[in-house]
Amino acid sequence: MKIIKEISAMQSISEYYRRIGKKIGFVPTMGFLHEGHLSLIIKAKDECDIVFTSIFVNPTQFLPGEDFKDYPRDFLRDYHLCKSSGCDYVFYPDADTMFPENYFTYVNVNVLSDKLEGMFRPGHFKGVTTIVLKLLNITKPHNIYLGQKDAQQAAVLKKMILDLNIDVNLRICDTVREENGLAMSSRNMYLSKDEKDKASVFNFVLNEAKKMILEDKIEDMNVVKQSVKNIIETKTPESSLQYIAITDNNLLEDIKDIKNYNGEVLISLAAYMGKTRLIDNILFKK
Ligand code: AMP
Questions:
Q1: Is 123 inside any structural domain?
Q2: What are the b/e assignments for 133-148, b being 16+ CB within 10 Å?
Q3: Which of 43, 166, 185, 186 has the lowest CB atom count within 10 Å?
Q4: Which pLDDT value is given to residue 16?
Q5: If you measure from the C-alpha of residue 102 to the centroid of ligand 1, how many angstroms do you get, rounded to a whole number?
Q6: Mind listing the pLDDT tens digit for each residue in 146-182?
Q7: Any ligand 1 atom below 6 A from CB of 39
Q8: Which residues are catalytic?
Q9: Is 42 in the pocket of ligand 1 (CB under 6 A)?
Q10: Do 235 and 113 share a structural domain?
Q11: Average pLDDT, stretch 116-132?
Q12: Are 68 and 192 members of one domain?
């Protein structure tokens, strides 16, 4: 496995593999890899000839006051994990390489970027779409692999690919969870053992909400959301729910008339466990 730091080198490597007819899979990450990331690399290796993984803690997707400086980084560890998962090239650029002085260009998926996470992290998705578009231009993959864990990110990037006619297949892979149901995340390292145990409540309530809709046939989504809130408050007073939303999975619009809705239902939430902000979601067919 090779480490590539320069944009032109990465582009040449991609062009070479394309020329000789190899299928390229690309997994963008911010590093501090866990089994969720590795599942994307393994899937990419399964479906493609060559796998590129990028490791870049993207400053433009963090808001002032967020954890950009503290975000966990351990390149050596990531290197070994990438290698053992079947990655062929790690693109590991410096911040100045990606965002040199006088960098001016951003891409934004309007409307979708302002919903859910966007309400609490304004500007976050503009950073995400910009970096992913840059990475797609650098790695030129046939397939890009994203996790369902970041459902809105996947929806926003799907829309960007569609709206800008980007020639890449988007593959969205299932969320990998800890044994207790907690969605794996690099940010879980901020949690104490006790908090990690208690954070299983988020996956639990998402499954409860799904049951309320599919089995109990509750039609008022506010009742479902209130029940989720109550369960979280009762079970784990250490946590606080920031939002819960029940939407479609494309435009992320609130589902008002669930009785007559026949698409995919996305229930997403963000919550604090102690000082750590976590997100999770569940996606199912109505
Ligand atoms: P990040 O390093 O957090 O930017 O994540 C890089 C990619 O890994 C994104 O597409 C995430 O959605 C995906 N990812 C993160 N956590 C998980 C998980 N627990 N299961 C599956 N994919 C994940």
A1: yes
A2: bbbbebbbbbbbbbbb
A3: 166
A4: 98
A5: 30
A6: 999 999 999 999 999 999 999 999 999 999 999 999 9
A7: yes
A8: 37
A9: no
A10: no
A11: 98
A12: no
Assess if residue 286 is contained within a domain. no
Average pLDDT over residues 81-110: 98
* Protein residue with least CA distance to atom 7, ligand 1: 29
Top mutation candidate among 40, 61, 90, 188 for ligand 1, by most atoms within 8 Å of CB: 40
Q: Assess contact for 186 and 38: CB atoms under 8 A.
A: no
Inside any domain, residue 180: no
The pLDDT, as a whole number, for residue 193 is 98
Domain check: are 140 and 192 in the same one? no
Residue type, 137: N
Q: From the CB of 61, is ligand 1 less than 6 Å away?
A: no
Distance set, CA 40 to CA 43, 82, 190 (Å):
5, 11, 23
* Cα–Cα separations (whole angstroms), residue 73 to 17, 98, 241: 30, 18, 28
Tens of pLDDT, residue by residue over 28-87, are 999 999 999 999 999 999 999 999 999 999 999 999 999 999 999 999 999 999 999 999
Range of the domain at 7: 2-173
The answer to whether residues 141 and 197 belong to one domain is no
**Quick check: CB of 183 below 6 Å from ligand 1?**
yes
The mean per-residue pLDDT over the stretch 127-154 comes to 98
With residues binned 3-state (H G I as helix, E B as strand, rest as coil), the percentages for the chain, rounded to 5, are 45, 20, 35
Q: Is residue 108 part of a domain?
A: yes
Can you tell me which atom of ligand 1 is nearest the CA of 28? Answer: 6
Domain limit, last residue, from 173, 197, 215: 173
Q: 267: Cβ–Cβ under 8 A, 6 or more apart, which residues?
A: 206, 209, 210, 244, 245, 246, 281, 282, 283
Nearest-CA residue for atom 6 of ligand 1: 29
How high is the pLDDT of residue 80?
A: 98
Task: Tell me, yes or no, whether 43 and 168 share the same domain.
Answer: yes
Mean pLDDT estimate for the chain: 98
- For residues 106-131, give the mean pLDDT: 98
Cβ of residue 146 lying under 6 Å from some atom of ligand 1:
yes
Overall number of domains in the chain: 2
Answer yes or no: do 15 and 90 share one domain.
yes
